[in-house]
Every structure is written in structure tokens, then in C-alpha cells.
Amino acid sequence: MSESAILERAQRFLSALRHCQVLGLQVHQATAEGLTLCLPYSPQIIGNPETGVIHGGAITTLMDTTCGISTVCVLPEFEICPTLDLRIDYMHPAEPHKNVYGFAECYRVTPNIIFTRGYAYQDDPTQPIAHVVGTFMRMGKIAQGGGNLKKDIQGGAQ
After folding, report:
1. Which residues form the Thioesterase domain (predicted)?
2. DSSP letter string over the chain?
3. What is the pLDDT of residues 45-98, one digit of tens each?
């Protein structure tokens, strides 16, 4: 699938999620290697009004969404893939008044489960705010016993 098709699919998926619209999440980049979303800083996501630090729930939503939508970067056809498990390790708080970016990649795709990993950052991806790993249940035709995984993934991780 072309990178423009991956980007379009990711944007379409994100635009269908109302809570992501409210948070202002935007697709920053989408390729076969992974997905980066942007969470713009705004007063609505402040967790501590005295410091202006972003609420952890907004970061969690960013990372769950990034991992979940990263599945469209590797699957040949769109599938609903609900979150089975998500683990986030917070390294340090996000700096106030700065956007947060979330990157995720799918590192293993099986007929039933997709495994993802990623990180949240602000200015420098090498200084992450948080690390994440997530698993997502496949609900498409392959998971239901149809299709050919090897053919459908077309050389991707198996």
C-alpha cells in the first residue's frame, strides 16, 4: 500500500473517533514503518492548573489511539482492532505549553493479535515522556478463519 493511502486511512480512522476530535489529535505522519499523532497543548487537557502539566489521561488516550491506528499501517484491509492490553511507563511529565507526539509501530502481526510498541515525546524522540506496549485483537476475516495471512500481510511481520 502506498504511503499516501496509509496516511489517508489513518486520517479517516482518527476523524471517526469523537474523543480524539475533542482532544484535537492530528495525524503527523503515517508510513509502513509506523504512525505519529500530535496532541496539541490546550487548556482543556491540563491536569494541574498550578503548573500547566498535561493530564496523564490525555497522554494515555494519545498512546492508545496511536497504537490502535498504527494497525492500519500494516494491514492490507481495514479491520476493527480493539485494545486487549496497554501498558504505559511514564518517564517524566510533559512540559507545559508544548505539543506531545505519540509514535507507534506494529512489530508482530498474527492471525488474531497485533503487537505494538511506541513512545510519547515533545521536542526530542530520544527523550521520551512515556513508553508504551499494546496488544490489539484482530476482528477481520483472517481472525475469523478466512483469508491467507501470509498473502494478506504481503511480506510484513508475522
Report:
1. 52-127
2. --HHHHHHHHHHHHHT-HHHHHHT-EEEEEETTEEEEEE---GGGEEETTTTEEPHHHHHHHHHHHHHHHGGGT-SS-----EEEEEEEE-SPPPTTS-EEEEEEEEEE-SSEEEEEEEEESS-TTS-SEEEEEEEE--STTTTT-S-HHHHHTT---
3. 999 999 999 999 999 999 999 999 999 889 988 888 999 999 999 999 999 999
